[in-house]
Each structure stands twice: as C-alpha cells, then as structure tokens.
Specification:
The chain has a 6-stranded parallel beta sheet, with helices on both faces. It starts with a helix and ends with a helix. It is built from 6 helices and 6 strands, in the order H-E-E-H-E-H-E-H-E-H-E-H. The protein has helices at residues 2-33, 69-83, 103-113, 130-140, 152-164, 181-204; strands at residues 38-40, 53-57, 90-93, 121-124, 145-150, 168-173. Helix content is 51%, strand content 14%.
C-alpha cells in the first residue's frame, strides 16, 4: 500500500513538473515569437527602415563609473545605428537612484565622447527595469517607432513589451564579445522568469 502511494505521489509530481515546464516554454515562446524583427549587430546586416529613436537599456557600471562591458556594447551598437542615420535620437535609459550611481550620465558621456551630438541624446532617469523603460519611452515620451538595443538574450522581452504597449518596435542585438560564462548563464535563467512576469504584466495589468 505504501509503495502504491509513493508511486502515485511520484506520478503526480512528474505531471505537475511537466505542466510547469510546458507553461514556461509556452509563455517564453509567445514572447520570442511576438518580438518581431531582430537584427544581430555582430553579423553582416542591413536595416532598410528608419526610426524615431534608438533605445539603449542600462546594464550596470564598473567601479570607476564607466559603462560595464555589456553596457558598452549596447552603446556601441546604438552609436553605430545613429551614425548610419537609422534614427536621429538616442534614448539612454537606466538607474540614477544613488548619488554615486548614475547610469544615464555615464551612458550619455560615452555617446558624446564617441561622436553623438548632445542635443540628440534623451535621458530616461527612471529606467529601473525593462518594463519601466518601455513604459517611459512609449507611454510617457510618446515614441511610437523605435529600435531597441540590448543583448540577444534580453532583446525579445524588450521588444515584446514595447510592441504590446503600442509601439512599432524592432530590436538590434549587440553580442560583440563573450561575457563571463557563469554570469551569463545566470542572466539566461533569470530572463526565462522575467519573460513570464512581464508577459502577464503587459497583457493583464493595463
């Protein structure tokens, strides 16, 4: 009898786990498929369209206050698109919550130092999350045609949120280097959960 109960419990656990995995796969697939056109910046590419603005999402700073490797790659991609005439404005969005931590100023300085006109840079000081950045850009600033610059693991959710908020949004991924292996695996796993969270937030919390 005890053996039978253990077998029933085991099968129930397997079914629950399978349903949970199916749920994760389904939601993540909906986000990825709903993200539209993604251009990979580390490959030969051609963008025929133009946009109102290029959106760069924050990705942390080094100890000296300069952009992290990941953020630097995003900024390089945005500057490249700007110089190609893909959009006339760059929106730098990030966390400016501390006196000694100001992503946006660091991002703006990097852009100016690399040939972007200061008047062509728009600050979003309240980009504390991907969702908040898209809300600020699309709903508050009212930009409706944008190209979003970030790494590939993160691009699908970013573009999906913007599209669901009503923007004509595409993505440009900037995986120009190999990032620290274990740190990137952690980001990949976290992104799976973030896609689920933002999928429900953008679809059922408006």
């Amino acid at each position: 009898m005890k053996k039978k109960k253990k077998m029933i419990f085991l099968w129930i656990s397997i079914v629950i786990l399978a349903l949970f995995l199916l749920f994760l796969i389904t939601v993540n697939s909906l986000v990825i498929c709903g993200a539209g056109k993604i251009t990979e910046g580390n490959k030969d590419y051609k963008i025929n369209d133009t946009y109102d603005a290029i959106v760069v999402l924050g990705a942390g700073l080094k100890a000296d206050g300069t952009p992290s490797n990941m953020l630097e790659d995003r900024l390089k991609g945005a500057i490249e698109l700007y110089k190609k005439g893909i959009a006339p404005k760059i929106i730098v969005s990030g966390d400016c919550s501390g006196a000694d931590y100001d992503e946006v100023s660091s991002m703006k300085k990097y852009c100016v130092n690399n040939g972007v006109l200061e008047d062509d840079i728009i600050r979003d000081n309240n980009g504390f999350s991907t969702y908040e950045t898209m809300e600020n850009v699309v709903k508050t600033m009212n930009f409706k045609k944008i190209i979003i610059v970030t790494q590939k693991y993160h691009i699908y959710r970013s573009v999906y949120i913007a599209r669901k908020m009503g923007a004509d949004a595409d993505g440009f991924s900037t995986d120009y280097r190999d990032y620290i292996f274990f740190a990137q695996r952690k980001r990949d796993i976290r992104e799976i959960a973030a896609r689920v969270k933002d999928f429900f937030k953008v679809n059922f919390n408006s």
